[in-house]
Amino acid sequence: MLKKLLFVALAFSLTNCLVLNPVGATLDREKGSEAASRITDAAIKTDLVNSVVLVGRPIVSLYSLVAADIAKIESDKYYIKSDVDQCVTDIQGFKGFLLGSLVTNIISCQDLKTDGYITGDPFPTF
Question: Where are the extended beta strands (E) located within 1-126?
Answer without folding.
Answer: 29-31, 78-80
